[in-house]
Write a structure and sequence with these properties.
The chain is of the alpha/beta class. It folds into two domains: about 250 residues, Rossmann fold (3-Layer(aba) Sandwich); about 100 residues, CBS-domain. It is built from twelve helices and 17 strands. Strand 12 and strand 13 form a beta hairpin. Helix 3 runs parallel beside helix 5 and helix 4 packs across helix 5. The chain is globular, with a radius of gyration of 24 Å. The structure holds adenosine-5'-triphosphate. GO terms for molecular function: ATP binding. Keywords: ATP-binding, Nucleotide-binding, Transport. This is ATP-binding cassette domain-containing protein. Belongs to the ABC transporter superfamily.
């Protein structure tokens, strides 16, 4: 557990970067600090591993005031991941990851075999271990950064905008990977971002900061979207927050109907769903038999936002549901989805 108790940081030039911050980061959760540029997220994060010390107030890690622990000892229990990964350019990927175990006195063989395990854990093929950082893509470098931070198996992981230098598709992949890793590792993670979508996607709790280093709201994502504490939070989480909050409502209540399925498109005077031999949707055939691209799929039981998006994006007006194997399971209309949303409003 990490606790900030009335923590303020004033830099020598008088800038107040963090102002009276009090919050608790529960053990084994991902907490996200989000807010516009310059509102004190990084400063708050760095006060956890003593890269910055507070001017007043107390930061506790597992009940101990961090100021009572010398920085090297403290940092052995705290992994740190930054934007651009911060890898050593002249060391191979494997040796980058093995750095901390080596510094902790492990033999070279043991440190390297641990590093190889970690590369696998973050989803990188073993061959990449021999390369140098510059020979990897941005997304791969970030994975190496995560592997390196995990090398000493620290209970706490601090991540400062770790995925902001990669493109949106790779970024979503890295977010999924982090969630998968976390389900396995159960670390206490503090993650800094200025992207509200990233925050609500990966955070179990989200702390929204405003200018002047003030905490505006600290809540689970669904609550943040449904009940922003004030106008600042409402505008920061965005005007489409109503739609976004549908990510936290599951689609299980939506009755699934059926569409006509075919294996070869043909003119049939009605919309037909083309499926492959295993029943996986391939696209829609229009009444004249032409194949029309478009239409997302959603998994049964997934968030209702996916069901609505599937219906709205479908050329036939029918959103296609698939089972856990990706096979056609039924269709819904946008009207059906909206009725369920309305009825849950109570
Ligand atoms: N060493 C320093 N001396 C003086 N002011 C500083 C120093 N470091 C940070 N600041 C100021 O403190 C405030 C908070 O900075 P911080 O880096 O914590 O913000 P942030 O929310 O992480 O921003 P960003 O999203 O742009 O990284 C800013 O106004 C910044 O200019």
């Amino acid at each position: 557990m990490i606790e900030f108790r009335d923590v303020t940081k004033r830099f020598d030039d008088g800038t107040i970067a963090v102002n009276g911050l009090s919050l608790v980061v529960e053990a084994g959760t991902i907490t996200v600090f989000v807010g516009p540029s310059g509102c004190g997220k990084t400063t708050s994060l760095r006060m956890v591993n003593r890269m910055i010390d507070p001017t007043s107030g107390t930061v506790l890690v597992d009940g101990r005031d961090v100021l009572s622990v010398d920085p090297p000892t403290l940092r052995r229990g705290i992994g740190y991941v930054i934007q651009q990964a911060g890898l050593f350019p002249h060391r191979t990927v494997l040796d980058n990851v093995a750095t901390v175990p080596l510094l902790s006195g492990w033999s070279k063989t043991k440190a390297r075999s641990r590093a190889a395990e970690l590369l696998e854990l973050v989803g990188l093929p073993a061959e990449l271990g021999k390369r140098y950082p510059v020979q990897l893509s941005g997304g791969q470098q970030q994975r190496v950064g995560v592997a390196r931070a995990l090398a000493a198996d620290p209970p706490v992981l601090l991540m400062d905008e770790p995925f902001s230098a990669v493109d949106p598709v790779v970024r979503e992949g890295l977010q999924d990977e982090l969630l998968r890793l976390q389900a396995e590792l159960d670390k206490t993670i503090v993650f800094v971002t200025h992207d509200i979508d990233e925050a609500v996607r990966i955070g179990e709790k989200v702390a929204v900061f405003r200018e002047g280093g003030v905490l505006a709201q600290y809540a689970p994502p669904a609550e943040l979207l449904a009940r922003p504490a004030d106008d600042f939070v409402a505008s920061f989480v965005g005007k489409d927050r109503g739609y976004r909050s549908l990510s936290f409502v599951d689609a299980s209540g939506v009755a699934v109907g059926t569409a006509k399925t075919v294996s070869e498109p043909a003119a049939a005077g009605e919309w037909q769903l083309v499926v492959d031999a295993d029943g996986r949707p391939q696209g829609w055939a229009a009444p004249d038999g032409s194949v029309v691209p478009g239409g997302s799929l959603y998994a049964l039981g997934a968030p209702i936002r996916g069901a609505l998006d599937a219906a709205l994006s479908s050329p036939s007006g029918l959103g296609v549901a698939v089972d856990e194997h990706g096979r056609y399971a039924g269709v819904v209309t946008a009207r059906q989805v909206l009725d369920v949303i309305e009825s849950r409003r109570g």
